[in-house]
Amino acid sequence: QVQLVESGGGLVQAGGSLRLSCATSGRTFSGYDMAWFRQAPGKERRFVASITWTRGTTNYADFVKGRFTISRDNAKNTVYLQMNSLKPEDTAVYYCATRDRTSTQYDYWGQGTQVTVSS
């Protein structure tokens, strides 16, 4: 079973930065991509960014373009989300997720890490 271990969440002032990490564990990982989602209180879970394991092709939600950067370290089976110019609206629980190449949906999810941006 693939396990996702997240870290890096915390409290930061508006305009500041945080770097989230999501590492796989349990077995050598083989998958299509890794993605970050977030869910604010009372809101739907939303896609934030993704990156493919093979080419490193990235995809971003419009509301984070130019501010967030997703990257991966294939040797470590780890994905990062560098979050800059944070806004209070970015406050949410951030989840990482991955899927097999045969899956159309994300099958594996991390536990979530809280990001709080103060004004």
Computed CA radius of gyration, to the nearest angstrom: 14 Å
Major sheet size, sense and barrel closure = 7 strands, mixed
> Uncertain runs with pLDDT below 50, 5 residues or more?
none
How would the global form be characterised? globular
The SSE order reads EEEEEEEEEEE
Q: Give the strand content.
A: over 45%
Question: What structural category do the secondary elements indicate?
Answer: mainly beta
Name the helicity range: under 10%
The end-to-end span amounts to: 40 Å
Number of DSSP-assigned strands: 11
Overall average pLDDT: 93
Count of helical stretches: 0
Fold and architecture overview:
It is a single chain. The chain has 119 residues and is an all-beta fold. The protein has no helices and eleven strands. The strands form two sheets. Strands 2, 4, 5, 6, 9, 10 and 11 form a seven-stranded mixed sheet that branches. Strands 1-3-8-7 form a four-stranded antiparallel sheet, with no helix packed on it. A hairpin with an 8-residue loop joins strand 9 and strand 10. The mean pLDDT is 93.
